[in-house]
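Q: Please design a sequence for this.
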Protein backbone atom coordinates (compact mmCIF):
# COMPACT_ATOMS: atom_id res chain seq x y z
CA UNK A 1 0.00 0.00 0.00
CA UNK A 2 2.83 2.42 0.89
CA UNK A 3 4.58 1.71 -2.43
CA UNK A 4 1.33 2.36 -4.31
CA UNK A 5 0.86 5.73 -2.55
CA UNK A 6 4.40 6.85 -3.44
CA UNK A 7 3.92 5.82 -7.08
CA UNK A 8 0.64 7.75 -7.35
CA UNK A 9 2.20 10.85 -5.77
CA UNK A 10 5.10 10.84 -8.25
CA UNK A 11 2.76 10.38 -11.20
CA UNK A 12 0.57 13.27 -10.05
CA UNK A 13 3.59 15.56 -9.74
CA UNK A 14 4.79 14.66 -13.24
CA UNK A 15 1.39 15.48 -14.73
CA UNK A 16 0.94 18.80 -12.92
CA UNK A 17 4.45 20.19 -13.52
CA UNK A 18 5.55 20.10 -17.18
CA UNK A 19 9.22 19.37 -17.87
CA UNK A 20 10.45 22.43 -19.78
CA UNK A 21 13.22 22.93 -22.33
CA UNK A 22 14.19 26.56 -21.70
CA UNK A 23 17.40 26.76 -19.68
CA UNK A 24 20.79 26.67 -21.45
CA UNK A 25 19.15 26.30 -24.84
CA UNK A 26 18.44 28.17 -28.07
CA UNK A 27 14.96 29.42 -28.93
CA UNK A 28 13.13 31.18 -31.77
CA UNK A 29 9.88 33.10 -31.71
CA UNK A 30 7.34 35.17 -33.61
CA UNK A 31 5.13 37.97 -32.34
CA UNK A 32 2.62 40.57 -33.48
CA UNK A 33 0.08 43.04 -32.23
CA UNK A 34 -1.32 46.55 -32.17
CA UNK A 35 0.73 49.75 -32.05
CA UNK A 36 0.27 53.43 -31.27
CA UNK A 37 2.72 55.93 -32.78
CA UNK A 38 3.32 59.10 -30.80
CA UNK A 39 2.82 62.32 -32.76
CA UNK A 40 5.99 62.99 -34.76
CA UNK A 41 7.15 66.60 -34.36
CA UNK A 42 9.53 67.68 -37.13
CA UNK A 43 11.74 70.74 -37.13
CA UNK A 44 11.82 72.10 -40.69
CA UNK A 45 15.12 73.38 -42.03
CA UNK A 46 15.73 76.71 -43.68
CA UNK A 47 14.83 78.43 -45.91
CA UNK A 48 11.32 77.45 -44.80
CA UNK A 49 11.85 77.01 -41.06
CA UNK A 50 8.92 76.23 -38.77
CA UNK A 51 7.60 72.92 -37.46
CA UNK A 52 5.19 70.20 -38.52
CA UNK A 53 3.34 67.45 -36.65
CA UNK A 54 2.25 64.08 -38.03
CA UNK A 55 -0.69 62.30 -36.35
CA UNK A 56 -1.32 58.59 -37.04
CA UNK A 57 -4.12 56.05 -36.86
CA UNK A 58 -3.56 52.80 -34.94
CA UNK A 59 -0.96 50.57 -36.57
CA UNK A 60 0.61 47.14 -36.26
CA UNK A 61 3.93 45.71 -35.06
CA UNK A 62 5.25 42.26 -36.10
CA UNK A 63 8.58 40.52 -35.73
CA UNK A 64 10.70 37.49 -35.07
CA UNK A 65 13.65 36.68 -32.84
CA UNK A 66 16.28 34.08 -32.05
CA UNK A 67 18.05 33.84 -28.71
CA UNK A 68 19.81 31.82 -26.06
CA UNK A 69 18.41 31.23 -22.56
CA UNK A 70 21.06 31.09 -19.81
CA UNK A 71 18.45 30.51 -17.08
CA UNK A 72 17.32 33.74 -15.45
CA UNK A 73 18.98 35.75 -18.24
CA UNK A 74 18.48 35.69 -22.02
CA UNK A 75 20.08 37.40 -25.03
CA UNK A 76 18.43 37.57 -28.42
CA UNK A 77 18.60 39.08 -31.91
CA UNK A 78 15.34 40.54 -33.21
CA UNK A 79 13.98 41.89 -36.48
CA UNK A 80 10.66 43.74 -36.43
CA UNK A 81 8.49 45.91 -38.65
CA UNK A 82 5.91 48.46 -37.55
CA UNK A 83 3.62 50.64 -39.66
CA UNK A 84 0.77 53.12 -39.19
CA UNK A 85 -1.26 55.24 -41.61
CA UNK A 86 -1.44 59.02 -41.37
CA UNK A 87 -4.53 60.65 -39.92
CA UNK A 88 -3.60 64.34 -40.16
CA UNK A 89 -0.70 66.68 -40.88
CA UNK A 90 -0.20 70.05 -39.23
CA UNK A 91 2.38 72.67 -40.22
CA UNK A 92 3.31 76.18 -39.10
CA UNK A 93 4.51 77.03 -42.61
CA UNK A 94 3.39 76.48 -46.21
CA UNK A 95 3.17 72.87 -47.40
CA UNK A 96 4.20 71.81 -50.93
CA UNK A 97 1.48 70.08 -52.96
CA UNK A 98 0.97 69.03 -56.55
CA UNK A 99 -1.87 70.36 -58.70
CA UNK A 100 -4.01 68.16 -60.94
CA UNK A 101 -1.76 69.20 -63.83
CA UNK A 102 1.39 68.02 -62.02
CA UNK A 103 2.73 71.44 -61.09
CA UNK A 104 4.29 71.95 -57.67
CA UNK A 105 2.72 74.68 -55.57
CA UNK A 106 1.99 75.26 -51.87
CA UNK A 107 -0.94 75.53 -49.50
CA UNK A 108 -0.96 77.65 -46.38
CA UNK A 109 -0.02 76.62 -42.89
CA UNK A 110 -2.72 74.71 -41.02
CA UNK A 111 -4.14 71.33 -40.02
CA UNK A 112 -5.07 68.97 -42.88
CA UNK A 113 -6.35 65.43 -43.41
CA UNK A 114 -3.46 63.49 -44.88
CA UNK A 115 -2.64 60.24 -46.65
CA UNK A 116 0.43 58.06 -46.49
CA UNK A 117 2.08 56.02 -43.76
CA UNK A 118 5.12 55.85 -41.48
CA UNK A 119 7.05 52.63 -40.91
CA UNK A 120 10.16 51.45 -39.09
CA UNK A 121 12.13 48.29 -39.89
CA UNK A 122 14.50 47.52 -37.02
CA UNK A 123 17.33 45.11 -36.22
CA UNK A 124 17.93 44.91 -32.46
CA UNK A 125 19.95 43.05 -29.87
CA UNK A 126 18.02 42.46 -26.63
CA UNK A 127 18.95 41.46 -23.08
CA UNK A 128 16.11 39.94 -21.04
CA UNK A 129 15.72 39.12 -17.34
CA UNK A 130 13.21 36.43 -16.32
CA UNK A 131 11.57 36.03 -12.92
CA UNK A 132 8.98 33.66 -11.49
CA UNK A 133 8.40 29.92 -11.84
CA UNK A 134 9.09 28.24 -15.18
CA UNK A 135 6.16 25.86 -14.84
CA UNK A 136 3.53 28.63 -14.63
CA UNK A 137 2.99 32.26 -15.52
CA UNK A 138 6.28 34.13 -15.22
CA UNK A 139 7.42 37.66 -15.99
CA UNK A 140 10.26 39.26 -17.90
CA UNK A 141 11.77 42.70 -18.48
CA UNK A 142 14.42 43.77 -20.93
CA UNK A 143 15.98 46.37 -23.18
CA UNK A 144 17.48 46.44 -26.62
CA UNK A 145 19.50 48.57 -29.00
CA UNK A 146 20.21 48.55 -32.72
CA UNK A 147 19.32 50.33 -35.94
CA UNK A 148 16.03 51.24 -37.60
CA UNK A 149 15.09 52.35 -41.10
CA UNK A 150 12.32 54.90 -40.57
CA UNK A 151 10.33 55.70 -43.72
CA UNK A 152 7.79 58.42 -44.46
CA UNK A 153 5.83 56.85 -47.32
CA UNK A 154 3.74 58.93 -49.73
CA UNK A 155 2.80 61.79 -47.37
CA UNK A 156 0.17 63.78 -49.29
CA UNK A 157 -2.70 66.23 -48.88
CA UNK A 158 -4.42 65.24 -52.14
CA UNK A 159 -4.32 62.47 -54.74
CA UNK A 160 -2.09 64.38 -57.17
CA UNK A 161 1.21 63.37 -55.60
CA UNK A 162 3.17 63.16 -52.37
CA UNK A 163 5.20 65.97 -50.84
CA UNK A 164 7.33 63.64 -48.69
CA UNK A 165 8.56 60.13 -49.50
CA UNK A 166 11.93 59.51 -47.90
CA UNK A 167 13.69 57.33 -45.32
CA UNK A 168 16.62 57.42 -42.90
CA UNK A 169 18.55 54.75 -41.00
CA UNK A 170 19.25 55.72 -37.39
CA UNK A 171 20.15 54.37 -33.95
CA UNK A 172 17.19 52.91 -32.04
CA UNK A 173 16.51 51.49 -28.60
CA UNK A 174 13.59 49.83 -26.85
CA UNK A 175 12.26 48.78 -23.45
CA UNK A 176 10.21 45.59 -22.96
CA UNK A 177 8.07 44.03 -20.22
CA UNK A 178 5.75 41.05 -20.33
CA UNK A 179 4.53 37.69 -19.10
CA UNK A 180 4.81 34.18 -20.52
CA UNK A 181 3.53 30.70 -19.78
CA UNK A 182 4.27 27.20 -21.17
CA UNK A 183 1.84 25.65 -23.64
CA UNK A 184 3.91 22.46 -23.75
CA UNK A 185 7.39 21.29 -22.79
CA UNK A 186 8.89 23.23 -25.74
CA UNK A 187 6.39 25.98 -26.61
CA UNK A 188 5.66 29.17 -24.63
CA UNK A 189 3.01 31.82 -25.18
CA UNK A 190 3.70 35.43 -24.23
CA UNK A 191 2.09 38.85 -23.92
CA UNK A 192 4.38 41.88 -23.87
CA UNK A 193 4.56 45.66 -24.03
CA UNK A 194 7.26 47.35 -26.11
CA UNK A 195 8.32 50.99 -26.15
CA UNK A 196 10.38 51.75 -29.26
CA UNK A 197 12.41 54.90 -29.91
CA UNK A 198 14.37 56.01 -33.02
CA UNK A 199 16.11 59.39 -32.73
CA UNK A 200 17.47 61.97 -35.20
CA UNK A 201 15.39 60.95 -38.21
CA UNK A 202 16.29 63.29 -41.08
CA UNK A 203 14.16 63.45 -44.25
CA UNK A 204 13.88 65.72 -47.32
CA UNK A 205 10.64 66.66 -49.12
CA UNK A 206 9.98 67.50 -52.79
CA UNK A 207 10.78 71.18 -52.19
CA UNK A 208 14.18 70.35 -50.69
CA UNK A 209 13.19 71.15 -47.10
CA UNK A 210 14.76 69.07 -44.35
CA UNK A 211 12.72 67.35 -41.62
CA UNK A 212 14.36 66.50 -38.30
CA UNK A 213 12.35 64.43 -35.80
CA UNK A 214 12.02 61.11 -33.98
CA UNK A 215 9.82 58.02 -34.16
CA UNK A 216 8.32 56.63 -30.95
CA UNK A 217 5.78 53.82 -30.61
CA UNK A 218 3.98 51.73 -27.98
CA UNK A 219 2.99 48.13 -28.84
CA UNK A 220 1.01 45.35 -27.16
CA UNK A 221 2.03 42.03 -28.70
CA UNK A 222 1.26 38.33 -28.40
CA UNK A 223 3.92 35.78 -29.24
CA UNK A 224 4.94 32.14 -29.50
CA UNK A 225 8.40 30.88 -28.53
CA UNK A 226 9.85 27.49 -29.53
CA UNK A 227 12.59 26.15 -27.22
CA UNK A 228 15.22 23.71 -28.54
CA UNK A 229 16.59 22.35 -25.27
CA UNK A 230 15.86 18.95 -23.81
CA UNK A 231 13.37 18.82 -20.95
CA UNK A 232 14.89 18.16 -17.55
CA UNK A 233 14.87 14.48 -16.62
CA UNK A 234 12.39 13.56 -13.88
CA UNK A 235 13.90 12.92 -10.45
CA UNK A 236 14.68 9.31 -9.61
CA UNK A 237 12.13 7.48 -7.44
CA UNK A 238 12.88 7.47 -3.74
CA UNK A 239 14.70 4.52 -2.28
CA UNK A 240 12.27 2.16 -0.59
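A: Design:
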Amino acid sequence: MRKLAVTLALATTALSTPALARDNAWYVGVEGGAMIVEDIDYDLSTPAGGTSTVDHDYGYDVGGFVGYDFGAFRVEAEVSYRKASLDSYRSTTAIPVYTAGGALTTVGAGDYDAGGSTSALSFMGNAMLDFGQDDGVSGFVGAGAGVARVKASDYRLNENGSFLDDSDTVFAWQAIAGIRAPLSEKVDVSLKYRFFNAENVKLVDVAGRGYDGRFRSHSIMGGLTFNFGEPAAPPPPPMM
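Q: Thanks. Anything notable?
A: Residues 1-19 have pLDDT under 50 and may be disordered. The helical segments are 2-16.
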